[in-house]
């Protein structure tokens, strides 16, 4: 999933536009909406990569990542702070671990395509954030 979060970071960095330079009180990694949103996108991407019958909703995912960036900007984070967060290797590894744990808790077994498909279909049926990002 390292590739997954590398792609997510690149996609988020590509959406960086001019923003205010107000200083933020809390570390961006502690903003649940942003952190959890990135984890959900990573989970959806991983499912789509491991299950041949499920695809990522790419445009929906890009739009969602842009909304997370706008949320961070609205909270006063600068472009530099956002870029530092998404480029931080330790944070990428931490988020990757969380995403893997959440996928495992949902029933994913690494290397077992059927388990990714089952979890993906369930997420789609329940219209969770992860399911919303899949088809």
Automatic annotation (TrEMBL):
Pfam families: DUF5333 (PF17267). Residues 1-19 form the signal peptide. Keywords: Signal. It comes from the Bacteria. This is DUF5333 domain-containing protein. It comes from Yoonia rhodophyticola.
